[in-house]
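Subgroup meeting minutes
Present: P.N., E.W., G.H.
Scribe: E.W.

1. P.N. recapped why we're keeping a running log of single-chain structure predictions: easier to compare across weeks, and new members can see raw inputs and outputs side by side.
2. G.H. added today's entry (356 aa).
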Amino acid sequence: MKNKRFLNLIVVFFKDTFKNKAEVFFTLLFPVLFLVIFGFVFGSMADDETIENYTFAVYGTSDESIKEYFAPDNVIFYSDYKEMENDVESGKIIIGIDVSDKENIKLIQSKNNENVNKSQWAVISAQNYLKKWITGLKENYFETEQKKVTSGRIQGNNLDYVLTGVIAFSILTGGMFSVIRVFGNYRKLGVIKRFMVAPVKPWEFVLSASVNKIILNLFSVIIIIFLGKIMYNLNYDFNWFLMLFVSVSATLGMMAVGILFLLLFKQTESASNAASLFSTAMTFFAGIYFPISFLPNFLQWIAYILPIKYIGDMIRYCAGIEEMKLSVFYGLNFTFIIVGIIFLVYASKKFVAKEN
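Output recorded in log:
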């Protein structure tokens, strides 16, 4: 009888959830919108399978033999120094080289920060080639070779990183805002009190509401992964058992965060607004859409105190694009589970049992 009542409660929560169009949108469709937007933004930045040769600009000589020293990279001769500078600045040429004075050879790089970062390896190659050319040596001073490396089972790219960030954000919003609605709005509207009039135990109410939100988050995760594969042909290789484990534990952990906002802010609207600001901050400072190293050094510490950072790390481990020690992986998961259960038990006593 209790099992049937519990299942009926889950069904009731499902029906209520799908009546709330805003909750359906933010749980199932909003993460998809993020995937589409970030997919278009970062799609052109996805790593290519092959590494292209550099094209260097040379000013001050028309000696064709210099090309032999720069092989396998390419050389274009310029007779107009200003034209070479403009082509370097625009990104058409990776590095400009002024050899008009062999005693004082100049390398010209773009002042654009993005182009400067891309040209660092080219500078090393150019220096090697120039030493060979000046001395007339055919052998390299040192060998330079570019190799793609991966920290996981597979070679991931920018879009794989973005997809796992979208999943992490989906779990964050699905878990955090669901409990604010259940324990905040339901209490405010008197829904909890009506449930307690029926033969429903507080733990049954809380557990059925939690199971409902966990299942919805799982649906959201599956939808994102499926669409990511179809739309962008992403490279991830999920361990589905571990991904299921992370989805459950992370949802419980984010529910704890939502309950914390309800405890800190007495009004449901205030808790919801604070949670929205918190989720926005985590979007930019937790390294879920781009590596933490992209942030200024004085801001990087913020990421390590935000829970979504660790959710993103665990999802990337499940996807095979990052490595993580199993002890750390299970330690993080059980921490989320324990904290989530503690807060849910406390919420059942504070927000539900009092209505009984």
